[in-house]
Amino acid sequence: QTWYAMAGEEKKRLTDSLAGRYDTVTNTYVDPEVGGNYKSPREENKIDESLLRTPESGLSSEEAANRLSKFGYNELPEKDENLILKFLSFFWGPMPCMIWLAAIVELIQCLSGRSEHWPDFAVLLGLQFVNGTVAFFEEYNAGNAIAELKASLAPKANVKRDGTWRIIKARELVPGDLIALQIGGVVPADAVLNGERTLEIDQAALTGESLPVTMRRGDTAKMGSTVRRGEMDAIVSKTGEHTFFGRAAGMVAEVEQTGRFQKVLFNVMIFLMGLATVLVIVILGILLSDNGTSSGEILTSIGTAVVLLIASIPIAMQVVATVTMAVGANLLASKKAIVARLSAIEELAGMHTLCSDKTGTLTLNQLQLDKPILFNENINGDRLFFLSALAAKRLDEGQDAIDTCIMNKALEKISKCEMEKYEQVDFIPFDPAIKRTEATIVHPKEGKFKVTKGAAPQILELCEDRARVEQKVMNNVNNLADRGYRALGVAVSDGEGVFKFAGILSLFDPPRVDTKATIERAQKLGVQVKMITGDHTAIAIETARRLGMGTTIHSVNAMREAPDTEEAFPSEGQNNKEDMILAADGFAEVLPEDKYKIVEVLQMCGQIVGMTGDGVNDAPALKKAEIGIAVQGATDAARAAADIVLTEPGLSVIIDAMIMSRKIFQRVRNYCIYRIAGTIQLIFFFFVAIFFRPENSFSDTSEKNFRL
Question: Which are the catalytic amino acids?
């Protein structure tokens, strides 16, 4: 309850404290790993305070132009890549070099007058082209995460310059610009609020918090968040890559992840090339000693050795594996799972751990009301929901998440026409100072009365029966808070304005219908599911309890404080950071870099890690994990960073994709085993045949003992 009532800046300090970066005693930022003070992300990118002293008329066009040249455009830096050079890079490497070598030898023999080698030369060039082209288009179709992140920025902004409000492209904003934030709008840059009212900001896609955050003057609204309630002017403090949004994009750009399947194929080919090269060198020596050292004979011997080398290396293995997985990707698309990187099919088949974001992935990201707790015998549950709806501002759009949830619940039992008979003659909106809303209602039969809802302690202060119900109310509120619920007290007055406590509403973000069954199926398939969320620990534990996935949920502070080695633990029963992450059912109150770190540690422990998510805050971890899975409705940033994009809600499609991936990989594995065995058989056959030189028992001619 206290958490939800906090201002944005207070939340930031608490989150930094939990992350081990902020010392609440000394009010300084501390690095938990190296000790001592360090610059927080906000301080590290700190802009001169003088830039924020914007006059009421806004910046002048000249000053805006100067700052634009100094700070650059309000956009994410994009790593330009030459497509031609990228295409050519697929024709360089151990395997392509072997094909080039064979093609050169065949070309030399063709130019020396041996025309029968032209078909071999053409086949080698064709195989080289197919290998490189298929690999290039696999990478090209996966898309560019940074370009998608850039495209997801708010395209327009309402800014005041030269004393006039105007609409400009969001990329042209500069620090110090005076902008207007309105209901339903996307915050175009990190901006410090500059008004006397409050804003409800939805940061779910950025921080993972399931409820909107109430912000006041001096708080910073983050780029990419959405205004759910209220209007206010703000001064731009950071733009582009210096924003919270930009740092997440930077982490995605820094990740260079090579597919595990590609590593396996590369290692197999290196081993076979090494073995084949040693044996072919021995064969070449024998051929040279038998055939002589004239130029023609040397060329023939070298050609024979190169042909043996090429024949013994499974050049087509990568092409066959790629085509097989491409066909499998089409099958997965029919199961509502679009594959952006083909090697993710193999990695999904062998996944050990699935790290799942909570908000919008395990849950619906939609507030729902649980069973109410009643304190007035004359008021039942439906009546309590109705009274709570009367204490909400009646708007066709722009209602906050809580009022929308309560209003929808009330309209299940009563029509909108019937509700309009209860005329709202006065309304006091929510204010963090009083932590409640209040409506004055007039009805033809029930007369005039008031309804208020909000934080239970503040509601109790208004009630005549406070002494009688306070202990019971607070016990219920504390119990709900321990289970991760948000509790709202409701009170109603009589005709004389005397309030009596009516009941408690409990709100929560419910799990998806199929999530529990999906997790059970994943566990039966040998996959451990971990919850990774930016929400509060109590909320995470309650969600985990409902899903039956274990309640060993640690705060990010506990993870940061855990030592890296077992020697650091003097007492029995403790374990190091790696053991904690492996054994935990999830982590709460994490930041984007924490999710990234968790995935990284799991990978260091030998785990093949899958990560599901839907928000900008998930993008770096999605990119880092072997299998990044963007769920249905994910942001452009999450989809671009992911290897698999789901087009159907829920997690059940992941299990279907996992089972199908195992079937697909089994086909690829069977082919690779067959091809490797055939390669070893081939090279050892020729080696034994030439090295031991068996006599030809079919004729007494002077032909060589062995001819190809």
Answer: 357
